[in-house]
Design a protein that fits this description.
With about 325 residues, the chain is mostly helical. Helix content is about 80%, strand content about 5%. It has helices at about 5-35, 40-50, 55-65, 70-95, 105-120, 130-150, 150-170, 170-175, 185-215, 220-245, 250-265, 270-275, 280-300, 310-325; strands spanning about 95-100, 125, 275, 305. The longest helix has about 30 residues, at about 5-35. It is globular, with a radius of gyration of 19 Å.
Length: about 325
């Protein structure tokens, strides 16, 4: 397969993967609401996990197909893109991102802890099954913290519901106190979309390997750039839409939650199957950059605002990261 053909397959597979993930999440929401599951619990689990489903499924399939290193590259690359690119573009577009939620006491320390955890477990060259298990326990702690405080849960779920509604356009699912109708079509969408997710993710991984071979670079480099940016496109779109509606804070919370999930789950789940190797380019360059990005996120949100100039600096830092990523 030529490079051009591989790129075309990658783009098409990524598009199908993103769309199918949204349909699967929407159908799962409908079924859970109809079964009487709390909308708050749905928002903190199904919707939250659905936003990172493309990265998770791609990483698991890559591990099964003998390329587990893609998982770490995808997680690290996505975390860097979320902070530098998604947050940066949102701040530039909004000119001023105001943050109303209190982040300093728990959210930001947990974000920093997840980043440092990934640096530690990958530093020796691979992430083992027990380290992946520790990561999933860390995710459980984060989810428990969200579920244990009702006022915080209200804030998080409002953000998740607003984000998912913007993506899926499904008002009936998120309407407060309204149970959606569950039909045969709902089950068909659930099963069909999940099947498309796995097929598209498999094609995505295959095309990624072909692109890496054609360019004679490591698969982790393609994962840190093409996959990371591709899976961040919906977040960029949602952020710009939220800014137009005056809900710019959605971007800040989405980046934080997505990065925690990527660190603990996108790496943790594949590590339960096979050891996830950390390529030298990831261990000695990308991971330190991710730590730097997380530190910048920590400090620029201390005053509960992100200015346009700070956003521009973040975008420029992402450009510098990509330029220096090439071998």
């Amino acid at each position: 397969m030529s490079l051009l053909s591989s790129v075309a397959v990658f783009v098409v597979a990524l598009a199908f993967l993103l769309v199918a993930s949204e349909w699967f999440t929407s159908a799962a929401e409908r079924l859970a609401l109809a079964a009487g599951v709390s909308p708050f619990l749905i928002g903190a689990t199904i919707v939250a996990g659905g936003t990172s489903l493309p990265e998770l499924v791609s990483s698991v399939l890559a591990a099964v197909e003998g390329e587990p290193g893609i998982a770490l590259g995808t997680a690290v690359g996505s975390n860097i893109a979320n902070i530098f690119l998604v947050l940066g573009i949102a701040a530039v577009a909004a000119r001023h991102l105001q943050i109303d939620r209190e982040l300093v006491r728990v959210d930001l320390p947990l974000l920093m802890a997840s980043a440092v955890f990934l640096l530690i477990v990958a530093w020796n060259g691979s992430v083992r099954w027990y380290e992946g298990l520790i990561g999933l326990l860390g995710l459980a702690v984060y989810v428990h913290f969200t579920l244990s405080t009702r006022t915080r849960l209200d804030e998080v779920v409002d953000e998740l519901v607003e984000e998912h509604t913007e993506r899926a356009g499904d008002e009936a699912v998120v309407a407060d106190g309204v149970e959606p109708d569950v039909t045969v079509r709902t089950y068909a969408v659930l099963v069909g979309s999940l099947g498309v997710v796995f097929v598209a993710a498999s094609q995505l991984v295959g095309s990624l390997l072909a692109i890496a071979a054609a360019l004679d670079v490591g698969t982790e480099l393609v994962a840190m750039t093409a996959v990371a940016v591709g899976t961040s496109l919906p977040e960029i779109s949602v952020s710009l839409s939220a800014i137009r509606r005056g809900s710019s804070e959605l971007t800040v919370g989405n980046v934080l939650g997505s990065n925690v999930f990527n660190t603990f789950a996108v790496v943790g789940v594949p590590a339960l199957l096979v050891p996830v190797p950390a390529a030298p380019s990831v261990r000695t360059f990308a991971l330190p950059v991710m730590i730097l990005a997380t530190l910048l996120y920590y400090f620029i949100t201390q005053d509960r605002e992100i200015t346009r100039w700070e956003g521009l600096a973040l975008v420029l830092l992402y450009a510098a990261f990509v330029v220096n990523l090439a071998p």
